Automatic annotation (TrEMBL), chains A, B:
E.C. number: 6.1.1.22
Enzyme class, first EC level, given as a word: ligase
InterPro entries reported for this sequence: Aa-tRNA-synt_II, aa-tRNA-synth_II, aa-tRNA-synth_II/BPL/LPL, Asn-tRNA-ligase, Asp/Asn-tRNA-synth_IIb, NA-bd_OB-fold, NA-bd_OB_tRNA
Family classification: Belongs to the class-II aminoacyl-tRNA synthetase family.
Entry keywords, A to Z: Aminoacyl-tRNA synthetase, ATP-binding, Ligase, Nucleotide-binding, Protein biosynthesis
Superkingdom of origin organism: Eukaryota
Record's GO cellular component terms: mitochondrion
GO molecular function: asparagine-tRNA ligase activity; ATP binding; nucleic acid binding
SUPFAM superfamilies (alphabetical): Class II aaRS and biotin synthetases, Nucleic acid-binding proteins
Keyword Protein biosynthesis: yes
Identification of the protein by name: asparagine--tRNA ligase
Organism: Bombardia bombarda
PANTHER family associated with the record: ASPARAGINE--TRNA LIGASE, MITOCHONDRIAL-RELATED, ASPARTYL/LYSYL-TRNA SYNTHETASE
Length: 532, 532
């Protein structure tokens, strides 16, 4: 018996493949010798423009999969617009009425036919269909996604169907290209890509805007009872992470420079175009770095690389073309172009918070809220900085904010004669219209100053079980803080280090021209909304 | 006033950089002209072997950052082993005792000196240190990570410090390389990388092994009260995703072939070496694919690409070298090598469940549990298949399992004369020792058969609010199922499609030789354990 032979003889060995799984086949699509091969995508087929000379007697035969976007009926033929998410532009297919059964809006079909020059002005070539296979029928009367204009608000009620609109397909491809570009950027700098945990012990400085995590089988009552027996699932309260930074710091003490693109969560009850309860954070941490300038250089280099590598991609070209259409829900083309050009600009201004305050105060009459040193910059202030310092195009780094309005882990500056107030080595990166798009800092890497800062911020608190009872530490020596482990990182060999965090979905909004973060994320979650 | 000029004059513009942020500097490290430039990593410096001819009078001066792994004291000098996570091997530094203050185990230091041939057998070159900067001191007496052997169980109690061991640094680099390789593979096949949601409405077929998500500010009481007012955070119970598959199916109806590497969660109370409560799933979904063979081809091609692209990387070579050491906690070298060679093998056997049952029944005396058609394969059975069909090396696809032991969404096979029993178009991918490493299927893409299957599996259930009350649908026409949206995908143009899911951490275990999944994840979470 040679059991391995069983496998080779299996029914799958010679399996015919509908789609395209081998790069070879992408090429074959354009080879005249092999006709009737399924073409990999509408986008690729639209690029193929065989001249009439090539095809005079023998037009190339192709097979293409896709969804019917619209059907226009003439006397004996139908004009079918076919899309498959690979391009905004549809493919025009001409189908004899006798083959058109089941060619309804939304249907998933496979069309075979000749790829020939089109007399129409809208396309160079069109498909003269000889065979129609309806792979997934659609009841067009009830299909909620229609070719006519549909508001973003309406589409948002259908997150499972919304990706099928050509614009949303382009946004999905844009996101994918952006992830690949970032992966390439960080690999070229030998940053290690990591997966910090999602379920964590830290409740984010007790701010309360976190989600807790409990097994579904543990009702509140059970959890209480079990907790008394020290038998709840994780033995103490656990939360969804609000940022991977603290864990990244631990990992950067292992492999040096690290980054991640991973989900983060906030249980904010705010109902704005800029916040979601679930979002992707792009975070990086640099080790053995003693100057905030290096962290800003990294942020700037990364965003510039991303912009340059994506600007000429099909998805971005399509999004820009959509921006230019009247009645588009995207930001106007000029504005979106300026955003890209700003990111590609070779030098971005850097000013301190104190310098920024000076500028604001010289123009105090422009603002509803009077600019005062020590305050958080309001949206109106950030907009002014972005316009006056960045010229409404370049991103602007604002650095060295007052200590008391920033996070406990940021490293303080030495007070000087010019700047006697307590500030920290941090930056916000401001861009026009959207304002803060990224933030970073040097981290306090010294043990005692960190502990002092935590006390000042009221963070050195005991760990508590699900009933709110203090958990004694292993030695029974008193309360254990949820962040003891973070303090530990400073106990044994903590080099100077710093990093940044950037809201990935917000960045994609900014560069695509999408006006709200709810429309850049396929399945957005915010207060009151978590469909599917 | 030209405010932009402010930025250029800022204190950060000329910032001195400790670490290396520009690729240029990587090169400069090896340029003789520019001495005293910080070298990018211990790994790079160890590769640099200037010959004595080059350096006779003027040995190259370098600066290197890292952590002290060990110190050996001689009369007037110290031998310091320096590591920075970039290599298993440390760098040997020789420091005059008068400069050695603060050079304690664990300390983060910056060493400057001459890079010269070493008389020792363990290294070709060593650093003769002229300057020591202690950037982060370490109290060596209390530092829990010691150079001597420490058990995996002990290290697991210190997840925030464990990454600092050379082995764990290599595992982090291995994970990073694997992510980059997968990104490259899928980009080359024009698969779109996506981010399916983490918080979902589906409780995974009601199996109960899910985590629920609630805002920390919502106590159970409040949640109950608020829910009655339809005012709980998400208005109904929400869960952490157990798999992105259902959402990937929606996205594949937009852009065709899609994939994701994202977190998934199970609230299993099992305490094994193969399960975590939080883990990364690699999932892909192919659209317009009508044959399970294509899904297996993709799985196989991906794993083969991954293995080939990683096998010669530094991290993998280091892990293999560690496997070969006696007393290592990793699987033996021969075994790990066989795993890599199996994945790189150009053809993997494929057999049906029914064929597998035949093999098992011929050897029934070998098993504790008698092999019977319709049963789930037990670990002993899977091991036998992996050994007898895959020769203990090649991965083996087992296909077409009985319908009743598989998920509701799998597409049924047509019963035939030889196979009259109800089976579904699915596969498990078995590898020696670890058994199932991936699973995939064709999805039921037809509306009514899917609804029938959901009824049969008891899944078509009404949506419930946090109090367990049924939520009427928008029309008031009766209960809304949590999976109505998934059924909707079949209503309008659902092409044949299929995909697979693979436990990413488990795969990394398999290929690294790490014996438990708790040691491949930096911050592992399982029942009773969620540190940091």
């Amino acid at each position: 018996m040679r059991p391995a032979a069983l496998g080779r003889a299996s029914r799958y060995s010679q399996g015919r493949v509908f789609g395209i799984s081998h790069p070879d086949r992408f090429r074959r699509c354009f080879s005249h010798e092999i006709s009737q091969e399924t073409c990999s995508s509408v986008a690729k087929l639209l690029q193929w423009k065989p001249t009439p000379d090539h095809v005079a007697d023998n037009p190339p035969q192709v097979v293409i999969n896709g969804f019917v976007r619209s059907v226009r009926s003439m006397k004996s033929i139908r004009f079918v617009a076919l899309g498959d998410g690979s391009s905004l532009a549809p493919l025009q297919a001409i189908v004899d009425t006798k083959h058109a059964e089941g060619l309804t809006v939304g249907a998933a079909v496979r069309l075979s036919g000749a790829w020939v020059s089109s007399p129409g002005a809208s396309q160079s070539h069109e498909l003269h269909v000889s065979k129609v296979e309806v792979l997934g029928p659609s009841d067009a009367k009830t299909f909620p996604i229609q070719k006519k204009y549909q508001t973003p608000e309406f589409l948002r009620t259908l997150p499972h169907l919304r990706p099928r609109t050509p614009l949303n397909a382009a946004l999905l491809r844009f996101r994918s290209d952006a992830i690949a570009s970032l992966t390439q950027f960080f690999a070229s700098r030998t940053f290690t890509q990591t997966h910090p945990p999602i379920i964590t012990s830290s409740d984010c400085e007790g701010a309360g805007e976190v989600f807790t995590v409990t097994p579904a089988t543990e009702t509140a009552d059970q959890a209480n009872t079990d907790a008394k027996k020290d038998d709840s699932f994780f033995r103490s309260k656990k939360y969804l992470t609000v940022s991977g930074q603290l864990h990244l710091e631990a990992l950067s003490q292992s492999v040096g420079n690290v980054w991640t693109l991973s989900p983060a969560f906030r249980a904010e009850r705010s109902d704005t175009s800029r916040h979601l309860s679930e979002f992707y954070m792009l975070e990086a941490e640099m080790s053995f770095v003693d100057n905030l300038g290096a962290v800003m250089d990294l942020t700037e280099d990364m965003l510039r690389f991303l912009a340059k590598s994506l600007y000429e991609t099909a998805a971005v070209k399509e999004l820009l073309s959509r921006s230019s259409q009247s009645g588009s829900d995207l930001a106007p083309l000029d504005e979106v172009r300026r955003r890209w050009e700003g990111l590609m600009d070779p030098s971005w201004p850097r000013i301190t918070y104190t310098e920024a305050l000076g500028l604001l105060q010289k123009n105090a009459e422009m603002f509803t809220e009077k600019p005062t040193w020590g305050m958080n910059l309001q949206s109106e202030h950030e907009k002014f900085i972005a316009m006056s310092v960045g010229g409404g195009q370049k991103p602007v780094f604002v650095t060295d904010y007052p200590r008391d309005i920033k996070a406990f882990y940021m490293r303080p500056n030495q007070p000087t004669a010019e700047q006697p107030n307590a500030t920290v080595e941090c930056f916000d990166l401001l861009v026009p219209e959207v304002c803060e798009i990224a933030g970073g800092s040097m981290r306090e890497h010294r043990l005692e100053p960190l502990q002092d800062a935590m006390k000042r911020h009221g963070i050195l608190k005991p760990a508590m079980d699900v009933n709110g009872n203090v958990i004694p530490d292993a030695d029974g020596n008193g309360p254990t803080s949820n962040l003891d482990w973070y303090v530990d990182l400073r106990r044994w060999g903590c080099p100077p280090h710093g990093g940044f965090g950037l809201g990935f979905d917000r960045l994609l909004c900014y560069l695509s021209g999408v006006q709200t973060i709810r429309d850049i994320v396929a399945f957005p979650r915010w207060v009151g909304r978590c469909d599917c």
